[in-house]
Each structure stands twice: as C-alpha cells, then as structure tokens.
Amino acid sequence: MTIEHLDGNALAGPLGELFTFDATTAVGRCAHCGLTGPLAALRVYGPGPGLVARCPGCEEVVLRLVRGPGAAWLDLRGTVSLRIPLPD
Amino acid sequence: MRRLIWRAATLVEVRAETATARTLVLDVPGWPGHLAGQHLDVRLTADDGYSAQRSYSLAAPADGERIELTVELVDDGEVSPYLTEVIEVGDQVEVRGPVGGWFVWRPESRAPVLLVAGGSGIVPLMAMIRARRLAGSRTPFRLLYSLRDPGRRYYAAELRRPEPGLDITYLYTRTTPEDWPRKAGRVMLGDLAESGWPADFEPDCYVCGPTGFVEVAADLLLDLGHAPEHVRTERFGPSGG
C-alpha cells in the first residue's frame, strides 16, 4: 500500500455513534493472519465512500464502515473477535 | 459512557499560533470532560444542508465546559479554512466527543514519557504536557518536536518557559535557527537515542504527526528496543483539512 492512510484512532468518532464503549481500545483478531491488536492500530483508508480498516500485519480488510442517510453499515467479516475492556 | 451526540459549540476566544494555525477556545454546554490525547469531531453545515466533518485533537485539559483545539490551515481543505480564517467569536459549530481512548496519557501513570511530534502532531502531546502540569505530576517527560522551520512552532512562548521535569528538543527538517547545532534534516535514529529515554526505562512513547513521519519515528523507536506496546501512534492523513 502506498496510499497514505490514517490509523484506527480515526474510527473513534464514527464507531462512537454506534457503541457505548470506546471501540478503538477493543483488541481484535485479524481473520486473515491472526494478528491481534487494538483497533486504534489498524490502518484506515477513507473517508469516502466509507472507512476501510486494514490489518497492519497483512494489509487485508478487517473492518468497513459506511455512514449513509439514516443508517450505518458495519462490515466485520475480517475480524474473528473483539475483546472489549469493560469495568466489572 | 453513552453514545456520542453532536453538541453546539460557541467560539469564545481565538489565539494565533503561527501564520497558518490558530487555537480556538470553545464553550460546549454539556461537555463531559476528556483525557489528554483524545480528539473530537467538528461538523460544519452549509445553508443548503451540505455538511463536512473533520477530527481535531484537543489541545488542553477541559476547563469545565471550555475546550481548546488548534487548527492548521490546509489550503484545499473544506473545514480548516473556515476554522482558521472565517469563524469569529460568538459563531457556532457542532462538535462530537471526546473520542479515542487509545492515544491517551493519564496523570496517575508513573512511567517516564517520550513525546515525539511532527508538525501539528504537537497538539495532543501539548494536551499531555498541560495535563501533567495541571495535575502537579512529577512524571518525567521528554518532547522531541520536529518542525519544518522555526516559524511553525506552536505554543512557542509556553514551551519556552522552563518547566521542571520536561525536557524539549527541537529538530528542524528544512530551515534551522542561526547557529543551530544540528543540520536541517528528517528525524534519525540518533535524534531519538539522544533526546529520548533508554528502552530499559520502559517509557511510554507517544508519536503523532503526518503518516510518513509517524511510520519512520515509530520504526526507529522499535529499532532502539522499545516494546511495541509502549509505542502509541496517531497519524494525520492526507484527507485532513
């Protein structure tokens, strides 16, 4: 990838519209290479037509988010799991 | 925490930082407070309904419902020309935040801190320096601030005042002040080795700036033996402005 990218910190606002927790501190596992890390460390390309977050290890797509009129589309097919830190 | 909502923000004060950057102080009723390093989204909506939004780092700890951001003019940007050249005290924008819980420093943290700023990447790092001061923290901080030329320095007067436990190194990539000991050039391994902390001190490293700068500086820190989990990064992409 030679296109300049942002990082997963840029997902904080758009995902904050959906979730009540800060998703960028959630630790995800890449469905392609198995790398784990916080969503904040993903490589994010966008903003239009949507945000595409790629794994910093294998560059495969981990997450996609499109905000349209009246709805948001969240595609998590590149994510095996998300571990979300929560207080007890 | 609850889902993010847009709030009305009123501009109450403007401070020029450089020829192209200014700090905006906004009054945001209902602002829930934030951590140093967090950012917020700003949304502008035109009369015809067209809207554009951008993410900006918060430059200082919250003062009640008052927040500060520093905005650099991006020539062909959609939002920054308005925020740097048009908006006046009393005008309103919409903001949403705070967001981002990863690139943050908490005053209760005891690990030494290395801040590495490229250009306007200083903004969230300045919030950390100010949060340290506000908390009376004695955690040692070092700042390596990379700039194109001396005229681009943000917060120049404030950073010139000596502050116990905060060491600052400036690095110029194109033009240096007169008689500057280091030749103009991009950040190198030696800069981080000399101005940073040894890796075995296990400092928390925060690197913020344009994507290319962050990639280089973060890789150099790893080369110096810093563990990846101690190197947190935040990139400004090309879509800014």
TrEMBL record, chain A:
Pfam families the UniProt entry points to: DUF6510
InterPro entries xref list: DUF6510 (IPR045423)
Protein name per the record: Hydrogenase maturation nickel metallochaperone HypA
UniProtKB/TrEMBL annotation, chain B:
Record protein name field: Oxidoreductase
Family annotation (Gene3D superfamilies): Nucleotide-binding domain of ferredoxin-NADP reductase (FNR) module, Translation factors
Keyword tags: 2Fe-2S, Iron, Iron-sulfur, Metal-binding
Domain of life, source organism: Bacteria
GO MF annotation: an example: oxidoreductase activity
Organism listed in the record: Nonomuraea glycinis
Xref: InterPro entries: Cbr1-like_FAD-bd_dom (IPR008333), FAD-bd_FR_type (IPR017927), FNR_nucleotide-bd (IPR039261), MRET (IPR050415), OxRdtase_FAD/NAD-bd (IPR001433), Riboflavin_synthase-like_b-brl (IPR017938)
Cofactor(s) the record lists: FAD
Domain FAD-binding FR-type: from-to ranges: 4-105
